[in-house]
């Protein structure tokens, strides 16, 4: 069955389609009887306005652009997925929806995609994730005065809206806890250089050890991509060190890495939590069900997603004129792995 149009309503109501349009958009000065007749016919025909056409007239798409990484089907993104779930709910509560797009490069900094989407008014603004050093997206969006909010800071002195979780504090707390447990040889399995999140967390590790008078052995730090395999390779590397240099505790900058580290340690015959301490970061759902349950850092991801969405919609709707920045505190969750 074809969808009813303005002209269908106009023909049955005996008026022009311009009059129907004005009545339904509350812009017409007509008699109460005519308005009642038009609205009755519109309901009878189940007429629904074309949302796309309305948005074009209003110069608004009610869509938010969100770049999805091209890591492929092997990429496991539990934190990003939870963040995204919170963003979607907050946006939909205010009549906005997310539209996803991919970029040509893995770092999500392909500017052309942002130019095309906003230039064609296909989106009203952007949410950025995985911010990097010298992030080209941020420089472009600031220069073009395009509404956006980043989930994550950059180290440059730039004035823009962002929400972040204090990774420095989170890893600092982990290192402090391990020191209190008597560990002195504390290793770190981290990401490769580039991500500001990585830099933030690594600083927490180095700062707390420095305060304790410990200079980390360069072999204690292993870096790779944010995958389970990185944790496994990191543990194999650390266990290959001479006994007197071998770490007794391992700080992982994500739960994904920690899962790989725990599995590899157990495969080598070690009892995690007794022979070696392993910690994670994120407190993904499965962390509490691992064997042993994972000591980790819980991030307020749901709160972060809601803040990001509301901050962006505030820019778009003109209720936020000055850039806002919110740094959320994570919390240490102590379980049996350390």
**Text of the CATH class of the largest domain:** Alpha Beta
Low-confidence stretches: none
Reported for the largest beta sheet, the result is:
6 strands, parallel
Following the backbone from N to C, one meets helices and strands in this order, namely HHHHEHEHEHEEHEHEHEHEEHEE
- The fourth-level CATH homologous superfamily of the largest domain is Response regulator
Strand tally is: 12
Radius of gyration: 26 Å
Which architecture name of the largest domain does CATH use?
3-Layer(aba) Sandwich
Count of discrete domains: 3
Q: What structural class is derived from the secondary structure elements? A: alpha/beta
Mean pLDDT: 89
Beta content: 15-25%
- What is the CATH topology descriptor of the largest domain? Rossmann fold
Envelope shape: elongated
Spatial strand order of the main sheet? 2-1-3-4-5-11
Distance between the termini: 64 Å
Structure in a nutshell:
The protein is of the alpha/beta class and 338 residues long.
């Amino acid at each position: 069955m074809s969808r009813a149009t303005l002209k269908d309503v106009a023909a049955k109501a005996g008026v022009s389609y311009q009059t129907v349009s004005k009545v339904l958009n509350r812009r017409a000065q007509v008699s109460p009887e005519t308005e009642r007749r038009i609205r009755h016919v519109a309901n009878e025909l189940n007429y629904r306005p074309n949302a796309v056409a309305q948005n074009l007239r209003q110069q608004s798409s009610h869509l938010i652009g969100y770049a999805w990484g091209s890591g492929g089907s092997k990429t496991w993104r539990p934190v990003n997925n939870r963040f995204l779930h919170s963003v979607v709910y907050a946006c939909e509560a205010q009549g906005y929806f997310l539209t996803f797009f991919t970029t040509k490069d893995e770092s999500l900094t392909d500017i052309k995609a942002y130019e095309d989407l906003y230039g064609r008014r296909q989106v009203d603004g952007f949410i950025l994730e995985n911010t990097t050093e010298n992030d080209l997206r941020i420089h472009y969006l600031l220069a073009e005065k395009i509404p956006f909010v980043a989930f994550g800071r950059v180290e440059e002195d730039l004035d823009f809206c962002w929400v972040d979780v204090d990774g420095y504090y989170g890893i600092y707390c982990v290192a402090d806890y391990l020191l209190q447990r008597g560990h002195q040889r504390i290793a770190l399995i981290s990401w490769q250089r580039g991500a500001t999140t990585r830099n933030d967390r690594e600083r927490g590790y180095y700062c707390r050890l420095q305060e304790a008078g410990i200079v980390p052995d360069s072999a204690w730090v292993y870096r790779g991509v944010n995958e389970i395999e990185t944790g496994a390779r990191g543990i194999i590397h650390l266990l290959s060190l001479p006994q007197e240099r071998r770490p007794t505790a391992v700080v992982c900058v994500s739960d994904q890495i920690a899962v790989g580290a725990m599995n590899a340690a157990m495969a080598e015959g070690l009892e995690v939590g007794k022979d070696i301490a392993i910690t994670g970061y994120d407190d993904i759902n499965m962390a509490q069900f691992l064997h042993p349950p994972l000591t980790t850092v819980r991030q307020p991801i749901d709160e972060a997603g809601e803040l990001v969405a509301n901050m962006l919609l505030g820019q778009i709707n003109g209720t936020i004129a000055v850039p806002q920045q919110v740094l959320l505190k994570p919390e240490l969750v102590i379980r049996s792995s350390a």
